[in-house]
Amino acid sequence: MSEDEFIEKNYNQWLTDFQELLSINSVRDDHLADTVHPYGPGPKAALKKMISFAIRDGFTRFGVIDNRAGYIEIGPKDARQTVGILIHVDVVPVDKELWNYEPFAGTIVDDRLYGRGSDDMKGSDMLSYYALKALKDRSSTFKNKVRLIIGTDEENDWQDMEAYFTAEGRPDLGFSPDGDFIVENAEKGIAHLDLISDSKILNPSNGQLLFLRAGKASNVVPGVARAAVKNVAFNRAQEIFQDFLKKEQLTGQIEEDSDGFKIILNGFSVHGSTPDEGRNAATYLALFLLNFDFDERTNRWLNFLAKTIHQDYFAEKLGIGITTPEMGKTTLNAGIVDLEINKTAKINLNLRYPIGFSGLKAVEIIENNFPWIKAYLRDDGLKPHLVPADDPVVTNLLSIYKQVTGKETHLNVSAGASFGRLMPRGVCYGTRFIGQQSTAHQIDEYFNLQNYQPAMRILIKSIEALANLD
Ligand SMILES: [Zn+2]
């Protein structure tokens, strides 16, 4: 069967498989986690689904490691090098009430397949899987073995890949199709910080901010923020709020509550690696709340959120932003904001930085600039990564894109993190086409079904080329 015949004949089955994968809610759920389901039932079920496709389709070499990751393999067993195609089947949480389609169903409207994970990255998962199947069915011989490596915790801690590498070793070269068909040969370092401060009230007769909460994941710009306020006149607050919404062009609701009000503010949620494309509901809500006088500690905290963190996309006001010619600017996202009166207030920051900086430096600078904050480095495992532009992995992927589409693609420094960085000669590559907008982590996330044919052709040729590299 020719490549084109394979692609055409497999479309319907590919689509059915894709919809089945989308219908699994593979958001990590720590409340339901145990040793058999280390990230809860969803991510494990999605991994099992991928392996079940492999069994159905006659792959003979596959496995599951520690219930966290899996692989499907082709090529010579005793090859010196391994090509890794690194994917993930977990997804980020949804604000279901804001979606126009059922997030875990796989609804098709006008060539768009809607669902959480359709763009990040279950569409790429299914394309990569079928590309591997095309090469298996063709039974050509390769220099390298090829493994489709399936992670289940990419959206959180990446312990899935740690477990996999510990058991199976690290692939030498490859790519992760977790973005655009641009060869992202450089990725920034990423650190997560918790900024902790005391929110014990000193003067309870003032206005009181009972809580302010927003965000579920460090790497997502919060799209909704909620707060409750006591000892403040509702009518005046309502007036100020309507003016605020108009001025900032935002939406939200305010509701009278015993001696105060409850409030919901909608921002615009995007991936935390591009905070300047979103609108952080938490910092906007803090900006609104500056209109009222609260306790001293609450005011200090609101000021920090509304004046320092608000729109500080490049961490400049916070004092930790740097810029380098090879890797660009540091970016900053306040992904989780959690204040509750008389408890410990927390702001979780997601920081992406060029070579020459580190999470520890960020901690030092923040604690120095804001002595009332205690900064904790939660994770600084992702160091900046770079594959030289003349590496054959890079040059092959660039030329295959041109061969298939007739158009040029280019190199890029990624502000996001993909599994590509986990391999010495690993890049991020595919499967959105240049110019298509990413809907990753957004409301009404979708996959463009017209991408199926050209993306499949590029992936088959790319995997084949890497399988034959020295
Ligand atoms: Zn992803």
UniProtKB/TrEMBL annotation:
Belongs to the peptidase M20A family. It comes from the Bacteria. GO terms for molecular function: acetylornithine deacetylase activity; dipeptidase activity; metallopeptidase activity; zinc ion binding. Pfam families: Peptidase_M20 (PF01546). InterPro entries: Bact_exopeptidase_dim_dom, M20A_pepV-rel, Peptidase_M20, Peptidase_M20A. Its cofactor is Zn(2+). This is Dipeptidase. Keywords: Dipeptidase, Hydrolase, Metal-binding, Metalloprotease, Protease, Zinc. GO terms for biological process: L-arginine biosynthetic process; proteolysis. SUPFAM superfamilies: Bacterial exopeptidase dimerisation domain, Zn-dependent exopeptidases.
